[in-house]
From TrEMBL:
Transmembrane segments: none annotated. This is Inositol monophosphatase family protein. Belongs to the inositol monophosphatase superfamily. PANTHER family: INOSITOL MONOPHOSPHATASE, INOSITOL-1-MONOPHOSPHATASE-RELATED. InterPro entries: Inositol_monophosphatase-like. It comes from the Bacteria.
C-alpha cells in the first residue's frame, strides 16, 4: 500500500473528526441520540461523519465501494459480496455509547479489503488525534512509530485480557467466568474495538476475545495486531475473514499466547 493513500485516508478521517465529531463531544442535544436497535445507540455525529467519509473514499479509489456501519443499518444488502473487488469498511464512530456518556474512549475505523483480504487499516481517536495504521506486509504504526509485540516472560496468571461477554452464549460466558482466575485480570473491554485492539498491539494487554463480529468493528484492528506480530484467529483456530460473520474471535500478542489462552480459558 503506497504511503500517499495511507496519508490521504488519514486526512479524510481527520477532516471528518473536526467537522462532525469533535464539535458534538459532550454537547449532544435532545434528538441527536437515538436507539437504532435494542441497546445500540447512534448519534448525529456518527451519521455526519459517515456522510463525509464515504464519498471521499469512493473518489480516492475509483471502482471501489463503501460499506459503512450506518448505511448498512438502513440497507443491509450492502454487506453482500464483501469478498469481491475493492471494499472500504467504515465505522465512523466506534464506541458511540462511550461518546454519548462523555468518554473519550472512541475511535474512527476504516479498513480496505481486496478480494476479501484486508490490505490496509486506519484507527483514529478523533478527540486525542492518536492514529494507528497498518498495511499488509508493511507493519503497524501508531503516530508514526512502528509497533511490534514482544514475547512475554510473564506466566499466564499475570496476563491481562479483555473478554466482551455481552453477546456470549450463556454456557460460554459461564466457562469464561469459571476459568478467569487462571489469569491476572480479565476486563470487560473498553466498549470500543478501536481502543481494545491497539492495547494488544502495544502490549498493554495480552489477549482479547469477541463473539459478535461485525466487519467494520474487527477488520481494522485485526490487521493492526497481525502486522504488529500478534495472532488473530477464530476460536477453532481457523483464519478470520471479515466477510464471514460466524461468531467468535480470539486475539493475542503472539501464537503461543493465543494457544495458551484458548487452552486455559476455553477448554477443560
Amino acid at each position: 500500500m503506497h504511503s500517499a493513500m495511507m496519508d490521504e485516508v488519514a486526512a479524510i478521517m481527520q477532516f471528518a473528526a473536526a467537522e462532525a465529531i469533535v464539535p458534538k463531544f459532550q454537547k449532544l442535544r435532545d434528538g441527536q441520540v437515538e436507539e437504532k436497535t435494542p441497546g445500540e445507540v447512534v448519534t448525529v455525529a456518527d451519521r455526519e461523519a459517515e456522510r463525509i467519509i464515504s464519498p471521499r473514499l469512493s473518489a480516492l479509489l475509483p471502482g471501489s465501494r463503501v460499506v459503512g456501519e450506518e448505511a448498512t443499518a438502513e440497507t443491509p444488502s450492502l454487506m453482500d459480496g464483501l469478498d469481491h473487488g475493492d471494499v472500504w469498511l467504515v465505522d465512523p464512530l466506534d464506541g458511540t455509547a462511550n461518546f454519548v456518556a462523555g468518554s473519550s474512549e472512541v475511535s474512527m475505523m476504516i479498513a480496505l479489503m481486496r478480494q476479501g483480504q484486508v490490505v490496509a487499516s486506519w484507527l483514529l481517536n478523533p478527540l486525542s488525534g492518536q492514529l494507528a495504521v497498518a498495511a499488509r506486509g508493511d507493519g503497524a504504526f501508531i503516530d508514526g512509530a512502528k509497533v511490534q509485540t514482544i514475547p512475554t516472560s510473564l506466566p499466564p496468571e499475570a496476563w491481562r485480557g479483555s473478554v466482551l461477554t455481552r453477546f456470549l452464549p450463556e454456557a460460554l460466558k459461564n466457562q469464561v467466568e469459571a476459568h478467569s482466575s487462571r489469569f491476572g485480570a480479565i476486563f470487560p473491554g473498553a466498549k470500543c474495538a478501536g481502543v481494545d485492539y491497539p492495547a494488544v498491539a502495544t502490549g498493554s494487554q495480552h489477549f482479547l476475545m469477541f463473539w459478535r463480529l461485525l466487519p467494520w468493528d474487527h477488520a481494522p484492528g485485526a490487521l493492526l495486531v497481525e502486522e504488529a506480530g500478534g495472532h488473530v484467529a477464530r476460536l477453532d483456530g481457523s483464519e478470520y475473514r471479515p466477510s464471514d460473520q460466524q461468531p467468535g474471535l480470539l486475539i493475542a500478542q503472539n501464537g503461543d499466547v493465543w494457544e495458551t489462552v484458548k487452552t486455559l480459558l476455553l477448554e477443560g
